Amino acid sequence: MTGKSAARGAPLFKVRRSRVHGRGAFAARRIRKGTRIIEYRGERVSHQEADHRYQERSARDNHTFLFIIDARTVIDAGAGGNDARFINHSCNPNCETVMEGKRVFIEAIRTIQPGEELNYDYQLGRAADDPPDVDAIYACRCGQANCRGTMLWPPKKAPRRTAARPHTPRRAKGAPSTKRGTARKRKQAARR
Ligand SMILES: [Zn+2]
Questions:
Q1: Cα of 20 to ligand 1 centre, how many Å?
Q2: 55 C-alpha vs ligand 1 centroid, how far in Å?
């Protein structure tokens, strides 16, 4: 499987086994900073439908294919998704998600060398009814020096950061907090 560049048709990345998590996406050639790598595609469903779809999966299953577009819509890359769903999380990512209209694109935030694994910060949301070991379930193994140990945001125990950060994490505008008392899959949200 390859990620195709719309402009040149040459594969930008290849999907293969990752040490971080399952399969991952690896740069097939040098990718310049600012390159739009791939659109995050999948079926567009309501939050309710997304929750319903993944309700039966184990709460311990940390695979995440849901991406919040807004208060009404979630992209489910588990249905009709493309290779964007194989891009793993990192606490020190080389890509970010960019929302344009109601579409999500993954773009390089620095130049990426061939063979490097592509990643972005999932910033998975927390919920009031999270089990105490939720951070362990969504543990991050990115191995970066600044790894916060979890794919969730914000970090559980860390005090609110006062230092300037390059990006201010936010939920997708109008995104509802996840419902209480329901088993549901984590949803990723774009930064803006
Ligand atoms: Zn990490």
A1: 10
A2: 26
